[in-house]
Write a structure and sequence with these properties.
By secondary structure, the chain is α+β, with helices and mostly antiparallel strands. It is built from eight helices and eleven strands. Helix content is 24%, strand content 16%. The C terminus is likely disordered.
């Protein structure tokens, strides 16, 4: 989804201390560092309510209407190439090597939001699969950071402009490794709020919680005798549970110390709560522009023009458990934490 946000909303997200400061334990990706992961859970007081607005933008646009609201957030800062002295790799600048976001720990969908500057998302075949060229039509003038895509050898490259949102689902989530690389950014420059950094928001759902949400929706569909929806949900649950043996119960209890019962209770609270009704106003988000560049890898497609329901002022005040500070200046992240994600 291109131009998903207005520049003012991008600025608010980019500079918000709820996402990017030492208190929120933002992760900064250093030059030469391949992976850096730190996640914040929705049960914590620092989890930004804007995650639900971004999620509803994905739902209302038609990009993935059945999205499970993520309960994990990873906020990251990438410094510009010129500030990465001391690293002489082939692609100077912060990047991630090819990897999977754990298929055992996380649920079916990965959401990525790009802020401040463009980058390149690369997909690599992990199981020897070949690219079916007709299934993927390269788009645009690649190399300008404006949302173009191309096939290069065995890999697929998709530019991620600022203010763009992507999802990984299906084969693009489970069969293709992905990497992030620096790219020359020819998109219109931000004003004085960005010193040249790229920031990203990665949103995921813990498997226990994601399964619980899908089960809740399945029970509702069965009660309403909506059998096509029920069948689709069963298929999603089964697909998600193919990957079960790569994580222990103790690993999952890190997120839900009370076990699956706590995850189920939390899922019920989210599904029935008012936070899931939070949306950007028409002045905060743009007309939805979705390019299905990832369809060949299993991405979703579609458009929607239906108007989302709005909360009144009292409901917003009641639902927003955390405030959003629009006056916060851009600041550097303070910590670097490196953990492998398999």
């Amino acid at each position: 989804m291109l131009n998903a946000l207005t520049e003012e909303t991008e600025r608010l997200l980019f500079t918000s201390p709820r996402f990017f400061n030492s208190f929120a334990e933002n992760t900064e990706v250093e030059a030469g560092q391949e992976r850096a992961v730190w996640n914040r859970h929705a049960r914590t007081a620092t989890f930004p309510a804007e995650v639900y607005k971004l999620s509803n933008l994905v739902i209302d646009s038609g990009l993935y209407p059945g999205l499970v609201y993520p309960d994990m957030l990873l906020a990251m800062t990438y410094r510009p190439k010129i500030e990465t002295k001391g690293y002489d790799g082939p692609d100077k600048g912060p990047k991630f090597a090819a990897h999977f976001d754990s298929k055992y720990r996380w649920g079916e969908i990965i959401i990525g939001v790009s802020l401040g500057a463009a980058s390149c998302l690369r997909f690599f075949p992990a199981n020897g699969q070949t690219m079916n060229e007709p299934a993927f039509a390269p788009k645009g003038d690649f190399g300008k950071g404006l949302g173009a895509s191309r096939v290069k050898g065995k890999r697929v490259e998709i530019e991620l402009p600022r203010r763009s949102i992507y999802i990984m689902s299906g084969p693009s989530r489970t069969d293709w490794k992905h990497a992030i690389s620096p790219i020359e950014d020819k998109s219109p420059p931000s004003q004085n709020w960005n010193p040249g950094f790229r920031r990203s928001l990665t949103m995921r759902a813990v498997k226990w919680y994601s399964n619980a949400v899908l089960q809740i929706r399945l029970q509702k569909a069965q009660t309403n005798e909506d059998f096509p929806v029920a069948a689709a949900l069963v298929e999603r649950i089964n697909a998600q549970n193919v990957f079960k043996k790569g994580v222990t119960k103790e690993d999952m209890e890190y997120y839900f110390p009370g076990g699956k019962e706590q995850a189920q209770q939390f899922a019920q609270e989210i599904e029935s709560g008012e936070l899931t009704r939070l949306r950007f106003t028409k002045h905060e988000s743009r007309i939805y522009i979705f390019q299905g560049a990832g369809q060949h890898l299993g991405g979703a497609s579609g458009t929607s023009t239906r108007a989302p329901p709005r909360l009144n002022d009292d409901e917003i005040r009641a639902a927003r458990r955390r405030r959003f500070d629009p006056t916060a200046p851009a600041i550097k992240s303070q910590e670097v934490i490196t953990i492998d994600d398999d």
